UniProtKB/TrEMBL annotation:
InterPro entries: Haus7-like. GO terms for molecular function: microtubule minus-end binding. GO terms for biological process: microtubule organizing center organization; spindle assembly. It comes from Maylandia zebra (zebra mbuna). One of its GO terms (cellular component) is HAUS complex. This is HAUS augmin like complex subunit 7. It comes from the Eukaryota.
Length: 331
């Protein structure tokens, strides 16, 4: 946090130094916030490069005459290296500190470099010093310890007017006497205004507090509600007599107290479900067995004389061998 505050103070000081040196590249900007000054002085941009080139040309007039600016604008690395060489001659940086010239270094380092460069610009340090002194004076004037004195100055407890002004004011107040005609005109104007306001209030119903209160329950609305209720009751009586009375007059159904039948039905249903599950498992097992048999008959799994053969082929060969063996025994 302290580093950020120091960077903002350095940015303000460098910007005020550029204004004091009458740098044409900051004229008309009117920057007030420290973040905008940091963006201008520390972020890589063509405007920042032009400001550095102006500072270098103000320090060394031969900087602009050493190489044409058109060549430098076409080759920005040449301009960057020339400014780094000038900084080395001034013992402010090394010739290899190209990142400091481009704006890739830390903001604090860039601001310190700019501050040291501006110290070589003629007429810059003195004016910037006056500006810094003014800022210090304002900070001290508006400090927390001086706020009570400032408040007392703005709203003094004693009347600071001179004696002759006080006497003139007292004489003016004592010599002024209201006229009866003026009082009569004022009273008539007030009465006319009050009557206009009363007429306006009578025309605007929503301004009346009595109109905003809910209306009382009138006999006519009660009569309408009673007639609606009578019609509903008559309709219900008609529906009850024609449709609902037959069902309402029936005796309630009698339930048997013997529950063994339901228990037996439940047990039979459970047994049926068990048998169905067993049949399902048997069918699944038969399908798996048939699949295995099919694989044994179709897929070669048995080796004979360096080759795989299926089970039926192997059985045929074994049967043929046994038949040949039996024929040899019989002969």
């Amino acid at each position: 946090m302290a580093g950020v505050l120091i960077e903002k103070q350095l940015a303000r000081h460098v910007y005020s130094s550029l204004e004091a040196a009458s740098c044409p590249l900051v004229e008309g900007l009117y920057l007030q916030e420290a973040d905008s000054m940091l963006q201008l002085l520390c972020a890589p941009s063509q405007h920042r490069t032009d400001i550095l080139a102006w500072i270098c040309s103000s320090i060394s007039p031969s900087f602009t005459s050493s190489k044409p600016m058109s060549v430098r604008s076409k080759e920005p690395d040449v301009l960057t290296k020339d400014m780094a060489v000038l900084g080395q001659e001034l013992l402010l940086c090394r010739a290899s500190d190209v990142d400091l010239i481009r704006g890739d270094a830390s903001p604090r380092r860039q601001l310190q470099f700019l501050e040291q460069l501006l110290a070589f610009v003629p007429g810059c340090v003195k004016s910037a010093g006056h500006t810094a002194d003014g800022e210090l004076l304002l900070k001290e004037f508006f400090g927390a310890e001086n706020l009570p004195h400032l408040t007392q100055t703005l709203s003094p407890a004693f009347d600071p007017w001179p004696t002759h002004i006080k006497a003139l004011w007292k004489n003016t107040k004592s010599s002024y006497k209201p006229n009866r005609e003026e009082n009569g005109d004022i009273v008539a104007l007030l009465q006319a205004t009050q009557s206009a306001l009363e007429q306006l209030q009578s025309k605007c119903v929503f301004l009346n507090s009595e109109a905003q209160s809910p209306p009382a329950f009138s006999p006519s609305s009660l009569r309408v509600a009673a007639s609606d209720l009578q019609q509903l009751m008559a309709t219900f009586s008609h529906v009850y007599e024609t449709d609902l009375r037959v069902y309402c007059s029936r005796d309630p159904p009698s339930f048997s107290s013997e529950t063994e039948v339901f228990q037996r039905v439940q047990q039979l249903l459970l047994a049926c479900n068990t048998e169905l599950e067993m049949l399902k498992e048997v069918s699944e097992a038969s399908e798996s067995v048939s699949e295995e048999v099919k694989q044994l008959q179709t897929q070669p799994h048995y080796w004979s004389r360096g080759e795989k053969h299926t089970l039926p082929d192997q059985l045929e060969k074994v049967i043929g061998r046994i038949g040949g063996f039996l024929s040899q025994l019989s002969s």
